[in-house]
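dude i think i finally got it to work??
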Amino acid sequence: MQLGAFSVSLNVKDLEASKTFYEHLGFEVFAGDQEKHYLIMKNGDTLIGLFQGMFEQNILTFNPGWDANAQTLKDFDDVRAIQKALKTKGLELVSEADESTEGPASLVLMDPDGNPILIDQHV
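look at this
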């Protein structure tokens, strides 16, 4: 199962303060919109999403179809195929992708410790 690019999506209290902090660690703004209260920051192939007021806790995020530069991969496992595989393994999903569609879709599941995992396909 290929889950695509990985990032940690952080629920931050102050986007500007978090941006400055991660810049001190060598991260640069890669994507996002500060006016919409989110930034994606990058250091090498490491991605961190900073989100102010968008969700309650930190989230592990995978993006099927993207590499670490948000470039579309030629071959990848579609989120709906991943969803079917997860269900076959008996994992419960918090939200599901509509299996009758194609293209962008997402699903959410929780790990055993209650950490949300977002599998978010943009292509």
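The beta strands are 5-12, 28-33, 38-43, 46-52, 59-63, 93-95, 105-110, 116-121.
im so relieved honestly
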